């Protein structure tokens, strides 16, 4: 896998500091993987009952500032890159931000991975208008609670929904298929930064618990909730800037480390709880390689 972009240089000097925080993990119970069927009348209650799985633990999130070059997609499941977008701060409105950033991000993924084709699955801007907003399930609120966006089963199912031509699908699956999430600050991040769990510290079979949501008959999505393990190494980049996006893997059909769907979560840094809400954009896509 090509990796032509270098890790981000530290153009500004910040105080490197690990952060002691609490993260609310998913408690593994003696029940089958969670399935919420939104076509059923009890779906909302099923979702509310998820609190029975709350499992908070103290965690130290390691600051990788100054050693970003040591972390790569292939080895750790995430990679910070230097990618400046001129006049990003002057863009007005979410739609203009997406219009400018989506094609540039597709080119970034192609250049970083060597992919010959990408298909964007989702673009989401996290930009809470009011710091006091309480609805943490809102799409524009930072996603607390460690998770991965897809399980390998979920990624395969979504791919079949996206590419419905059997011959075209078979040709693409003969090569390497990845799902990559590109997360970029729209302003320097202080409050609610993004933490990524080094894939080398993840035990996929034990740490990732499948959760499935059925939207309508035959249409479902499966993602992973994360159970706590002392072996996990959680990382972040302090004072992450808009020119320091991070690419992280959410699926890789050719990985030597299983499906490679990287756990991640927003977390609370007590030093910055009174700061303005963070502004960030995430662009998730399939990337197809010939290897």
Spell out the blueprint of helices and strands.
Blueprint (H helix, E strand, L loop, with lengths): L18 E8 L7 E4 L5 H6 L5 E10 L9 H4 L1 E3 L13 H20 L3 E11 L19 E2 L3 H11 L3 H8 L2 E10 L8 E4 L6 H4 E9 L2 E8 L7 E3 L9 E7 L11 E3 L12 E11 L2
Parallel strand pairs: 2-9, 3-11
Antiparallel strand pairs: 1-3, 4-12, 5-14, 6-10, 7-12, 7-14, 8-11, 8-13, 9-10
Write a structural description.
With 291 residues, this protein is α+β, with helices and mostly antiparallel strands. The protein has one domain: Jelly Rolls (Sandwich), CATH 2.60.120. Helices cover 18% and strands 32% of the residues. The protein is built from six helices and 14 strands. The protein has helices at 43-48, 73-76, 94-113, 152-162, 166-173, 204-207, and strands at 19-26, 34-37, 54-63, 78-80, 117-127, 147-148, 176-185, 194-197, 208-216, 219-226, 234-236, 246-252, 264-266, 279-289. The strands form three sheets. Strands 1-3-11-8-13 form a five-stranded mixed β-sheet, with no helix packed on it. The chain has a five-stranded antiparallel β-sheet with strand order 4-12-7-14-5. The chain is globular, with a radius of gyration of 19 Å. The model is unreliable at 1-12 and 129-137 (pLDDT under 50). Belongs to the asaB hydroxylase/desaturase family. GO terms for molecular function: oxidoreductase activity.
